[in-house]
């Protein structure tokens, strides 16, 4: 995954919001896997709900992270460490992926003048738009096409 490349090869330190955004991306990926496993069953609706929730939550997190970077303030900071539920201690299970060591307000990387959270804003917005289009498309039945015109 690209986030691990940034963290372990480019040696960028992920902050708490980066870790939460990473979890939202894993949610989108998990929804895609569920949808790919069962595309014609009602389980696909569960996948769409997970997809929309993960994309929406990721969009919120990326917006919050962007605001922290664009308008740094000593009164508006992120948590010291990521808080996961007791029944899902991701920071203990996979610390190299889910442990935060950076500051949310620090600008570490940019590409085409946009910082990482700003890119994630666009990415999560695109995921959300496509997810909504897929949900709307569920209302329409595909036309059956005969390959040989019979």
TrEMBL record:
Segments traversing the membrane: 119-140
Transport as UniProt keyword: yes
Keyword Lipoprotein: no
GO molecular function: electron transfer activity; protein-disulfide reductase activity
Cytoplasmic side stretches: 1-3, 40-45, 138-150
Gene Ontology cellular component list: plasma membrane
Disulfide linkage: 15-18, 78-104
Membrane-related topology note: Multi-pass membrane protein
Compartment list: Cell inner membrane; Cell membrane
Residues in the Periplasmic compartment per record: 6-23, 64-118
Recorded superkingdom: Bacteria
Function summary: Required for disulfide bond formation in some periplasmic proteins. Acts by oxidizing the DsbA protein.
Similarity comment: family membership: Belongs to the DsbB family.
Protein name as annotated: Disulfide bond formation protein B
Protein source organism: Salmonella enterica I
